[in-house]
Amino acid sequence: MLLKLTYKILEKLPKNEEFGLKSQLRRAAVSVSSNIAEGSGRKSIAERKRFYEIARSSVIEIDSQLEASVALQFIKEEDCEEINPLIMEEFKMLTKMIEG
């Protein structure tokens, strides 16, 4: 769902950000699910946690890039209303997976 909502917001960013914020957001969104998947396939707990940490960092990156997009007036704060709770939920879930 985080991936889907991120891509929905990407449509609102200006075309001239294709290789800037759009690209960064796209990579970060894909990174979350990719690293969760890769981590879950690891036998070592330490390795698994490392991939979950990378996924959590990507969640933080998405949040930061959305804040930048609002600050630069590419999107409005309201555009993030749906995704913001999901960002927090993903962050908390990944934190539990890392600590657990």
Structural class: mainly alpha
Radius of gyration: 14 Å
Name the average pLDDT: 96
Compute the separation of the termini in Å. Answer: 23 Å
Q: Number of DSSP strands? A: 0
Helix/strand order, N-terminal first: HHHH
**Biggest sheet, in brief?**
none
* Helix content class: over 70%
Q: Strand fraction band?
A: under 5%
Instruction: Pick out the low-confidence regions.
Output: none
- Tally of individual helices: 4
Which shape, going by the Cα principal axes? elongated
Structure overview:
By secondary structure, the protein is mostly helical. It has helices at residues 2-10, 21-40, 45-71, 83-99. It is built from four helices and no strands. α1 (2-10) packs antiparallel against α2 and α2 (21-40) packs antiparallel against α3.
Tag the structure with descriptive keywords.
0% strand, 73% helix, mainly alpha, elongated, 100 residues
